[in-house]
Amino acid sequence: MRYMFGLLWVAFIAYALFMAPGNSPANDPIFKELLTLQSREPWLLTVFSWLGIFPAVYACILLRKSMTASKRQRMPAWPFVLFSFGLGAFALLPYFALISPFPTDVHDPESSVKQSKRGVSRVASHKLTHLILLLLTLGSALYALIEGNSERFVDAFYQSSFVHIMTIDFIVLTLLSTYAICRDARVNGRTTNWAWAGLLPLAGPLLYLLLERK
Fold this sequence. Notes:
Elements: H1 2-18, H2 29-35, H3 42-62, H4 65-68, H5 78-87, H6 89-98, H7 109-116, H8 119-125, H9 127-147, H10 150-159, H11 161-187, H12 203-210
Helix pairs in contact: 1-6, 3-5, 3-8, 3-9, 3-11, 5-6, 9-12, 10-11
C-alpha cells in the first residue's frame, strides 16, 4: 500500500507537469479569476473552496488526539497537513507513503485526552470544528447546485490546466480519505466499514467524526 501511494504521488506530479491539457497558469484567465475569487462560475468557485476545506478535514483526522496516541508512529503528520493547504494531495500522498499502514498500538483514551487539551489537537478533536466544516461544505454545495452550470465546469476542465489538476486533486483527496478513515477507525476501535463514508466528498469524513461517541 505504501509503495502504491508513492507511485501515485510520482505519477500525479509527472501528469501535472507534462501531460495536463489546457492553458498554463501564466496564460490562464480562469486561474487568475479563481485566485482573486472573481470567477462567475459557482462550480469552479465551489471546488476551489473545497480544496481549502479538505486539508482542514484531514487535519481533524490526522492531528486529533487519537492519532497522537500511537507510540510507534514516528512520522509527524502536521507538516504534511500544513503544506496540503497549498498543495492538496501532492503534500498528503508522501505522508501515507511513509507511515505504516495500520499502527499496532492500542488506543489509550486517558493519555490521548491529556494530549488533546493542547493546541491544534484540541481544535481538531472538537465537534464544533467538524460541524462548522460540514456546514461550509453543504452551503457551498447548495450554492453550486442552484446557481452553477456543470457544462461550464467541464469546458474549463479541458481549457485550464489549473482546473484540470484541481479537479483530479479533489478526486484523489476524496479517495484518499477512505484510507485515512479506515486507518483512524482501526486505531480507535471503530468498524472499518466507516471507510466507505470517504466516498462522499468532505461530508462523509466529517459525519464520521461527528458521529463518534466519546
